[in-house]
Automatic annotation (TrEMBL):
This is Forespore shell protein. One of its GO terms (biological process) is sporulation resulting in formation of a cellular spore. InterPro entries: Spore_YabP (IPR012504), Spore_YabP/YqfC (IPR022476), YabP_sf (IPR038705). NCBIfam families: spore_yabP. It comes from the Bacteria. It comes from Desulfosporosinus metallidurans. It holds the Pfam family YabP.
Amino acid sequence: MVNKVGKGHRLVMENREQIALTGVQKVQSFDPKEIVLETELGILSIKGDQLGIKTLNLEEGMVDLQGHVSALIYHRNTSEGSRQGFLNRIFR
Protein backbone atom coordinates (compact mmCIF):
# COMPACT_ATOMS: atom_id res chain seq x y z
CA MET A 1 0.00 0.00 0.00
CA VAL A 2 1.40 3.37 -0.96
CA ASN A 3 0.04 6.73 0.05
CA LYS A 4 -1.03 8.99 -2.81
CA VAL A 5 1.82 11.39 -2.09
CA GLY A 6 4.29 8.67 -1.03
CA LYS A 7 5.41 10.29 2.23
CA GLY A 8 5.33 7.10 4.30
CA HIS A 9 3.70 6.51 7.66
CA ARG A 10 4.70 8.55 10.69
CA LEU A 11 3.14 8.82 14.14
CA VAL A 12 4.11 11.53 16.62
CA MET A 13 2.44 11.57 20.03
CA GLU A 14 2.76 14.34 22.61
CA ASN A 15 1.97 13.65 26.27
CA ARG A 16 -0.54 10.93 25.31
CA GLU A 17 -2.96 13.75 24.41
CA GLN A 18 -2.15 14.71 20.81
CA ILE A 19 -1.19 12.58 17.82
CA ALA A 20 -0.05 13.69 14.38
CA LEU A 21 -0.15 10.98 11.70
CA THR A 22 0.92 10.75 8.09
CA GLY A 23 0.34 7.87 5.70
CA VAL A 24 -3.35 7.64 6.59
CA GLN A 25 -5.53 6.35 3.76
CA LYS A 26 -8.95 6.08 5.38
CA VAL A 27 -10.82 6.63 8.64
CA GLN A 28 -12.70 3.38 9.19
CA SER A 29 -14.53 4.45 12.34
CA PHE A 30 -14.31 6.88 15.20
CA ASP A 31 -15.99 7.65 18.49
CA PRO A 32 -14.75 9.16 21.78
CA LYS A 33 -13.35 5.76 22.92
CA GLU A 34 -11.70 4.45 19.71
CA ILE A 35 -10.51 5.70 16.33
CA VAL A 36 -9.69 3.11 13.66
CA LEU A 37 -7.52 4.23 10.75
CA GLU A 38 -6.28 2.49 7.63
CA THR A 39 -2.61 3.45 7.19
CA GLU A 40 0.16 2.51 4.80
CA LEU A 41 1.30 -0.05 7.38
CA GLY A 42 -2.13 -1.53 8.02
CA ILE A 43 -5.03 -0.96 10.39
CA LEU A 44 -4.30 1.19 13.45
CA SER A 45 -6.66 1.36 16.43
CA ILE A 46 -6.23 4.24 18.85
CA LYS A 47 -8.06 3.71 22.13
CA GLY A 48 -8.66 6.16 24.94
CA ASP A 49 -11.10 8.74 26.25
CA GLN A 50 -12.52 11.91 24.71
CA LEU A 51 -10.79 11.14 21.40
CA GLY A 52 -11.45 13.46 18.51
CA ILE A 53 -10.15 14.35 15.08
CA LYS A 54 -8.73 17.88 14.97
CA THR A 55 -7.52 17.86 11.35
CA LEU A 56 -8.25 15.44 8.51
CA ASN A 57 -6.65 15.67 5.06
CA LEU A 58 -6.83 12.31 3.30
CA GLU A 59 -5.50 13.75 0.03
CA GLU A 60 -2.20 14.33 1.84
CA GLY A 61 -2.70 11.38 4.21
CA MET A 62 -2.57 13.55 7.34
CA VAL A 63 -4.64 13.30 10.52
CA ASP A 64 -4.29 15.14 13.83
CA LEU A 65 -6.03 13.64 16.87
CA GLN A 66 -6.61 14.76 20.44
CA GLY A 67 -7.81 13.18 23.66
CA HIS A 68 -6.34 10.86 26.30
CA VAL A 69 -4.64 7.94 24.55
CA SER A 70 -4.49 4.63 26.40
CA ALA A 71 -3.45 2.27 23.55
CA LEU A 72 -2.11 2.20 19.99
CA ILE A 73 -2.64 -1.13 18.25
CA TYR A 74 -1.45 -2.13 14.78
CA HIS A 75 -3.37 -5.16 13.57
CA ARG A 76 -1.45 -7.92 11.80
CA ASN A 77 -4.12 -9.06 9.35
CA THR A 78 -4.98 -6.03 7.22
CA SER A 79 -6.42 -7.94 4.25
CA GLU A 80 -9.90 -7.91 5.78
CA GLY A 81 -9.58 -4.17 6.28
CA SER A 82 -12.49 -3.77 8.63
CA ARG A 83 -13.27 -3.48 12.30
CA GLN A 84 -15.77 -6.33 11.92
CA GLY A 85 -12.95 -8.59 10.71
CA PHE A 86 -10.82 -7.68 13.71
CA LEU A 87 -13.63 -8.46 16.15
CA ASN A 88 -14.27 -11.77 14.42
CA ARG A 89 -10.60 -12.73 14.89
CA ILE A 90 -10.77 -11.95 18.62
CA PHE A 91 -13.87 -14.04 19.33
CA ARG A 92 -13.01 -17.14 17.28
